[in-house]
Amino acid sequence: MYKDSGTNFASLSPTEIKQWLESFDTVLTDCDGVIWVDNNPLPQATDVINKLVGNGKQLFFVTNNSTKTRPEFVDKSVKLGFNVGIENIISTAYLAAQYLKAKSFTKKVYVIGSTGITRELDAVGIRHIGIGPDNLQGSLAEAVRGFTPDPEVGAVIVGFDEHFSFVKIMKAASYLNNPEVLFIGTNTDERFPMPDCVIPGTGAIVNAVTTCAERLPTVMGKPNKYICDILEQQYNVNPTRTLMIGDRCNTDILLGKNCGFQTLLVETGIHKAADVKQFAQSDDQETRKLVPDVYAGKLGDLLPYL
Amino acid sequence: MYKDSGTNFASLSPTEIKQWLESFDTVLTDCDGVIWVDNNPLPQATDVINKLVGNGKQLFFVTNNSTKTRPEFVDKSVKLGFNVGIENIISTAYLAAQYLKAKSFTKKVYVIGSTGITRELDAVGIRHIGIGPDNLQGSLAEAVRGFTPDPEVGAVIVGFDEHFSFVKIMKAASYLNNPEVLFIGTNTDERFPMPDCVIPGTGAIVNAVTTCAERLPTVMGKPNKYICDILEQQYNVNPTRTLMIGDRCNTDILLGKNCGFQTLLVETGIHKAADVKQFAQSDDQETRKLVPDVYAGKLGDLLPYL
């Protein structure tokens, strides 16, 4: 049914759409650019999500955003009209906490990030240090002399941190000098372009620490397969009967490809049909992985068929 | 005379050493780990440098350190007994200023760095903004709203900055969103390992900005060829009759290889004979580039032959 160059949802017959909708039991969806933009739901997105849940699909919001806890995501979702609970949210902060819990981690975590991460660590009883402003006071030599590594630190988590600083790179890299200290990155999104400025993404922060530590982190977020492990182990998800929906091919669609999921791109965020066409024509096999099975103008286009 | 696996200076006969010393007119040398460590000259290094100058060699101290101006380097060098003047110093801050001067640059520079850079810009009459602490005050939303890009900024220089912050990444990437804004990195050294901590190098800072800006900088420092252009254009240096001395193969020796210089590794800093042996045995051509022509225990080993 699907073309190598991606299938336009609008070109499918009602019978083909019905068949497609019956081909998955689990739906994973990105949030920003798919179901909402900032605090505004996208047209009919709320109805589509609620119908999918009503029709018995197992639903997960999958987000690379590490600044909110799962209860905070639920609050936002419910306020915007989505019928979801904490069991429907997979965030990178949650995954990082689960990752350490699965390793029976009992030491402390040095966190570059926000309360989005530390509250998820609190929820699994893992101690942490580091969040909040930590800037150079006095000279660099004084900062070096004044830094006493906490011997209880056994992991470094790097996520989105608006207080990111030179001193934080120094501390993270110093802990990571011990090869036994675990290194976790929540996600590697490069940036958030705004009308008049560019907001750094976690990827910029992770790359600073990676360069200085001369080590690569285990990354929790899309497009890395770790989410898939959690879904299979904790929720019995069957990859071939799972649909990943997203607006960004190099995170959402690639996650789908990396995990063996079906994929749907909606054109209400980063990537559009023209990008899909370009990816499909590439000579590079890795680029061709960015082509979704199906693409639609918006998530709301599914509503008449649910 | 030289082996593909590097030639041990100690294995050369006095005749071979004399021949070797006569094969170059220009000597470029790294500083830290070669002629001094912090504020202590290495054994006989002062005598070797002063003899080389006395024997008529054209000498340059070539440093990736962007925190000092050339006059500040001269001060330090003279205090430690080296007979050098400003004409003998090539620093990345100086190179960055020369790079913009050569382009007849008349706009402003947004600097992530220190007075080491801004004083070199002042010396060539180029205006700048940005140095010093610049941390998040209030919320991220306030910082975004409060940032008014300076329309006069036409270049971003990224160097070593102990006040590096999230806000600085945001500003640099925002300026670099305009493809006409020039992007210069002083150097890409990853880190400075200390006994109890790891101090971030400029490479960590550059990589954070690069990730967020989705652009690569023109890098001034070793191992990039730009130094070679300046030496040929401004000082008529002949690459084949030039010796590059260093303690780090992936900056100093690689610069030599990239520029067609002869190379000497001294084992008083980062890399040792054992590393050279390992590089020489690599299947990877790029790794084999790290093998110096000659390696010696210390620079002082040359003294008896000068």
How would you sum up this structure in a few lines?
With 306 residues, chain A is α/β, with parallel strands linked by helices. In chain A, 36% of the residues lie in helices and 19% in strands. In chain A, strands 1-16-15-14-2-5-6 form a seven-stranded parallel beta sheet, sandwiched between helices. Chain A has a five-stranded parallel beta sheet with strand order 8-7-9-10-13, with helices on both faces.
Describe this structure in words.
The structure is a homodimer of 306-residue chains. Chain A is an alpha/beta fold and 306 residues long. Chain A has 2 domains: 141 residues, Rossmann fold (3-Layer(aba) Sandwich); 125 residues, HAD superfamily/HAD-like (Rossmann fold, 3-Layer(aba) Sandwich). In chain A, β9, α7 and β10 form a beta-alpha-beta unit. The longest helix of chain A is centred in the last third of the chain and has 12 residues. The radius of gyration of chain A is 20 Å and the shape is elongated. The two termini of chain A are 20 Å apart. Chains A and B meet through α6, α7, β12 and α8 of A and α6, α7, β12 and α8 of B.
